Amino acid sequence: MASTTKEVSAQPTNRIFSGVQPTGNLHLGNYLGAIRNWVTLQADYECIYCMVDLHAITLFQDPVELTASTREVTASLLASGIDPKTSIVFNQSQVHAHAELAWIFNCVARMGWLNRMTQFKEKAGKNRENASVGLYAYPNLMAADILAYKASHVPVGADQKQHLELTRDIAQAFNSAYDVDCFPMTEPLIFGEGTRVMSLRDGSKKMSKSEPSEMSRIILTDGPDEIAKKIRKAKTDPLPLTASPEELEERPEAKNLLGIFAALSNAPVAEIHQRYDGAEFSQFKKDLIELAVAELSPITTEMQRLLADTAYVDSVLRDGADKAAEIATPIVKEVQDIVGFLRP
Ligand code: TRP
What we know:
This protein has 344 residues and is mainly α. It folds into two domains: 15-194 and 309-339, 3-Layer(aba) Sandwich (Rossmann fold), CATH 3.40.50; 214-305, Orthogonal Bundle (Tyrosyl-Transfer RNA Synthetase), CATH 1.10.240. The protein has helices at residues 28-41, 53-56, 63-80, 97-106, 111-115, 118-124, 133-147, 161-177, 224-232, 245-250, 252-264, 269-275, 281-307, 310-339; strands at 15-20, 46-51, 88-91, 153-155, 187-189. Helix 8 links the parallel strand 4 (153-155) and strand 5 (187-189). Helix 3 packs across helix 13, helix 4 (97-106) crosses helix 7 (133-147) and helix 11 (252-264) crosses helix 13 (281-307). Bound molecules: tryptophan. Tryptophan binds at residues 17-19, 21, 52, 55, 142, 145-146, 154, 160.
């Protein structure tokens, strides 16, 4: 076996890749669950952050909105503290390596593996015959995103864990089919508590941009008045707050608001539960509004500024795409050589 093993480029040990779909505005759940962690990771890793527009069109996107959302989501990342001088920030379609490697992975991944993907089943719904082929092959593209950079780590929420496992299966299958040690076994980075933000209208549902009511989520362009209004109107129940974990399990709205408070103040959830044990919602909400406005206003103000300066945002994406391609293009060439594609 070893005699045929080809020389391959090194596998980095501290390279992060993550992606976010440029569809609509980012909300508090995206911020507390992902983006804020991405900001922290910059201190210890080489970070590559991608607006995954190729993924976005697996469900039809209005072209004008897709362009606008790509800039908006980029602006939210920058406003949240992602520094384009230290991290690579770009949109996926500008770097050809993603689509090229995805095709090769379409030929590595097995139908049986994709048939197990729960996200496809959820997104395709009842009418699976009518889902796009892209939606089905989505996880292969995600594997290509990660492996085009030989990323060592990917920060993932629970909903993407299965896709990361598939990425490792693809890496393994490729390495073994071609008898090479080309791709790494990328590790998930999972963050602690306080990452699951629920709807402000229904504590049993995740905060989501697809929920019809705008009152269900705080978005990163909301000003202080909107933030205050959404928190004031957030669904509660008639009882005072409690620190009892069992009781909070039965009271998802209370649990969610306390969780948001803990996340925004960077405190352990249990500490916030204790602090407000027995308090009325009215007092708690006042404090939460003050905290949320203080924490989020700098971001929303900076976002407004960036949204008015599309030339700057575009220049960040252009630069980012150049830097991304510098890493990914040689890796894809290496893969093409391994596969036996002639590059005369
Ligand atoms: N599938 C991810 C999501 O919907 C987005 C994504 C695409 C991604 N490519 C990625 C995340 C690579 C991590 C790594 O949230």
